[in-house]
Amino acid sequence: MAKRLDIDAWQRIELEYCAGEDSIREIADRYEISDTAIRKRAKADGWVRKVRTPEKCEPVRSPPPPAPIDPEKPVDIATIADGGRGLVHRMLDELDVITSRRGELEDMIIEATDGDDEEARRDSMMRAVSLPSRANTMKTLALALKTLNEAAAPQGKKAAQQERANEIANRFRGVGPPQLKAVK
After folding, report:
1. pLDDT-derived band at 43, boundaries 50, 70, 90
2. Cβ neighbours of residue 101 under 8 Å, at least 6 residues apart?
3. Given CB 3.0 to 4.6 Å as the disulfide criterion, which of 9, 64, 130, 176 pairs with 5?
4. What is the pLDDT confidence band of residue 49, given thresholds at 50, 70 and 90?
């Protein structure tokens, strides 16, 4: 049986709803009622929810446009890998924001699809922010990062040994021919 709330509880719920600091599901859990009950009451009484802006988010700066590709210049794998790593890190940050704001996104989806006759639009939007979707995105980003790191690394044992030998040889390389200086 559904829980009945007194008038004071509904007034507190209305204040929390309108403040917009917590998601509707968090408010519903706190008062041990369904989020649907809050949505119905808000719609019936005309409650207006304040839109919350993220406090810690920095303004999004678009990266500079990529330099045009010169067909005569050799491709540097390390540069490509560094750019790819930066892209993966930005996408992981974006995934983190989506994960931390999932409740709000679901609330927005429900409000946006409230008058729809079919549930297909709501279902597809909910799948986009669902846990399996985010987990698959994380898996794909991890695989991309692994591939980028492997592409930038030297290939095989022989290449690694040759690179190490070159580093050691550079330590013992001469500074140049001796120079004679006159001392007065």
Report:
1. confident
2. 54
3. 9
4. confident
Computed from CA positions of residues 160, 164, 169, 175, in that sequence, does the dihedral angle turn out positive or negative?
Answer: positive
Vertex 14 angle, CA 3 and 114, to 5°: 80
Sequence-distant (≥ 6) Cβ neighbours of residue 106 within 8 angstroms: 23, 25, 126, 129
Cα–Cα dist 3/81, whole Å: 57
Taking alpha carbons only, the member of 97, 64, 70 closest to residue 83 is: 64
Q: Dig out the tokens for 49 from the structure.
A: 């929810």
The SS3 assignment for 50 reads coil
CA distances from 100 to 3, 5, 53, 96, 151 (A): 29, 30, 13, 6, 32
Residue 161 tokens, joined: 């040994």
Helix, strand, coil tally for the chain in percent (to 5): 60, 0, 40
Question: 39: closest CA among 128, 122, 114, 124?
Answer: 114
Token couple for 17: 């709803």
> Which H/E stretch holds residue 117?
none
Q: Per-residue pLDDT tens for 109-119?
A: 888 888 888 88
Q: Are 50 and 19 in contact (CB under 8 A)?
A: yes
pLDDT mean over 43-68: 68
